[in-house]
Amino acid sequence: xxVLDKDTRVFTLHTQNTTYQMKAxxxxxxxxxxxxxRVGGGDLSYLIQYADRGFCPNPSELGRRRDYSLDAxxxxxxxxxxxxxxxxxxxVEQPDGSRLLDLRYESCEARPGKYALEGLPAFHGAxxxxxxxxxxxxxxxxxxxxxxxxxxxxxxITRTVRIRNRGNRPVRLNQAASLCLDLPPAEMxxxxxxxxxxxxxxxxxxxxxxxxQGVGSTRGTSSHQHNPFVMLCGRDAGEDHGLCYxxxxxxxxxxxxxxxxxxxGDIRLVLGMQPQGFSWVLGPGECFTAPEAAMICSPNGxxxxxxxxxxxxxxxxxxxxxxxxxxxxxxxxxxxxYFDFDAEKLxxxxxxxxxxxxxxxxxxxxxxxxxNDDFGGLGDWTVNRRKLPGGLEALAPRLxxxxxxxxxxxxPEMVSEDSALYREHPEWAMRAPGRPGAxxxxxxxxxxxxxxxxxHLFNALRSVLxxxxxxxxxxxxxxxxxxxxxAALPPERQGETAxxxxxxxxxxxxxxxxxxxxxxxxxxxxxxxxFDLGMLxxxxxxxxxxxxxxxxxxxxxxxxxxxxxxVCVGAHVSAxxxxxxxxxxxxxxxxxxxxxxxxxxxxxxCRCTPEEREIIRRQTEDFHRYGELIRQxxxxxxxxxxxxxxxxxxxxxxxxxxxxxxxLVTGSTWAAQPFVTLKLKGLxxxxxxxxxxxxxxxxxxxxxxxxxxxxxxxxxxxxxxxxLEA
Length: 726
Ligand code: DGJ
What we know:
By secondary structure, the protein is of the alpha+beta class. 18% of the residues lie in helices and 29% in strands. It has twelve helices and 39 strands. The two termini are 36 Å apart.
């Protein structure tokens, strides 16, 4: 609910459990007054205190008043160069060369329905509401519109910013953050999700110290190294208690998430596109729209925040026909064959897969052009007839006869120098004139900011997709950006290239979606290098990591779970010893871990023993049985893998609490271990549950408050699943 008091100029956003408020004060400065547990309303600006603070400048219109400084007051959208020395939200270069921006309140409007964003990913839903607040720089022609979307039931507030040039000379925009959140002094922690290729989204929690700290990506992608989802929380906050804020950017390019603890202890979080290298020429009358950011505040710890993010993503970000829906259990040939396969090998795998309950065969990298290793071929999206003599049109029906759908891998954004496409269009690769250009995985990035490149890619994909019945595409992208430069832009606009690339990528993905509405597209970037809400708008699932080791995945999937629901998390069972780290794990454990995602196999099923096949058959059966619970249930983290309690446990609980699936995986074993009593969460305390179909009726309250005794397990990396039914 949005409440506007135009007399006091207090604007309040209420969600089910939270309240967010700002006030345009007597100086027309838009101050942030409150974000936290829901309160009745009224003017909360009494929380703001005024004092003469040394070396904090005062606006000149206030004459001799010294207790008013932009540097010491909570701002709704911070400016630059006119009195606030903390993190700016927008940075500009005015026509006179000054880098100054002063924003003052102009007007506001609340309206039913959530604002729409042209060409950018966004939460959607008829019940959303919009608040628009217009700010203007009194000394220049710049106008900033702050947009807020309110989804009450999800405690979700979305934000974005439109910056308009109302003057007749161009202005340069050097930063346009999507979210600025000023919080009062408090002892808080910043939580980020960081790592590397094959080690994505490890959770890191550290107290905020004075100054700026944060994460970001300058790689042109959201990156493996840091995720554009961050949290702020009280020092004492945990899964079930304490105040916490989660903020996510719906953007797949470079980003910056920075938190600053100021000289007076107050805290500012700024989240938006990466300013480094960014510069946008805003011509007269033009408007720049920043990507959307989403925030959820939970007064009761991390779990409730996670539940709200998961519901919002499933129901208000993903789009039909795949929003929260069942995806087919698949087998992917990458770790089974790498580049060394042909149609017969794929059919062999499919023949093994079909009776085991697997319904989709995904042909990974290497089916096209002269792609026999990762040194060439990218860009030539025509079938390699040596490997697939009859083409896709012959393979798909043969799979269909086996009861399998057909899917394939593409990496449209890239080009190999050893390819027909590059020989024909070397200028389509991003590379500045006179520079050799760095390679990544021996490939170059195609300039998706250019329409002709996008048109070419769309047509190339269309020929592939129209040539056979194709149900699924894995959209991969395997390098960080360097040498960002577009032949289509003049020198003064080169700072726009990286963002125009992302806009181009979104346009291409949207075009594909419109042309093939039933096609399931899985995002991928060397695993989870572009795992963000922006991509999820177009690709309802993303390959979580190139690390398919079940034990490493426990940490990766744990970190991923804070914002992203399991239905989006690409997870497969792969061979043991694991291809990435050589670890040996039981097949049962690999199944338990992959089941907490989209579920599938990434191994040569032809090499399985009859016993292994039987385990796989049971796993796919279990996944079909529990599928809805995993997709639609509330996710509970029951342990902290980074604390190494000797096991990792989690649960999916049905919204009506009548059913739950609890999973537990042990670490490497040692003798005389303490017994584990696992305290479950989210059950109905008054209900009685049967576990795995047993006769005993277990009271929900006892299972949660006293716990469930985990039977001792021998050996490393064991697992169990408890299926509870009330
Ligand atoms: C990186 C992906 O993450 C892998 O799963 C695989 O598709 C390779 N690329 C293929 O080159």
